[in-house]
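Support request, please re-run this one:
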Amino acid sequence: MKLSRAEFEQRYAENRLKIALVGMSNIGKSYTGMRLATGFDFDLIEVDTLIREQLGQGSMEDFAAWQGQPYSEGYSEREKQSIALESKATKQALNHQGGNAVLDTTGSVIYTDDDVRESLTKDWFVVYISASGDAIERLKVQYFKQPKPLIWNNFYQRKINQSQDEAILESYPKLLAARAKAYAALADLTIGSDVILDTKLTIEDIFQRLKPTV
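Re-run finished. Output below.
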């Protein structure tokens, strides 16, 4: 939803501003959403939580274990199930009724059903948190350290004599590059992860940077 700076501020003042955060897992969406909820009294809607509730999974680790790695037996089918669950959960989240809201989407929101993405861009101000600086290397490390469910969308490719982990490390940046274009296509505004995660910036500073420039 394209907004001018004045429209953004008016919607916030009238308690009807809807911001959706998109980008890779571990890029800073949840962190930013929680800060906005705490600092500016936004309703925080976490799609991951809605999906886990549908599955009956208690934690992100349980969800990741259920989905598995791209080389796991049955992963392809669970990937399809996960996208269907995400489409349903995101559609539910987009129907939020109430005051100012911030939507913490999953990294695979770009794979949800067409009507879901259309509603997202029509009714929400979409902010893409892009991977900047050393973020790509950090995301690779974080993926192994604290696994999250990940839709690979056929980007996992393993070469002869290559270990599964080596294939993951080589395939991951290619997945990121492809996703970056898809996130940018949804976005009304793009902000780097180096800004979002800058500890010197207050949430007031971040909120100002989320506003359109004109």
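The mean pLDDT is 91. DSSP finds ten helices and five strands in the chain.
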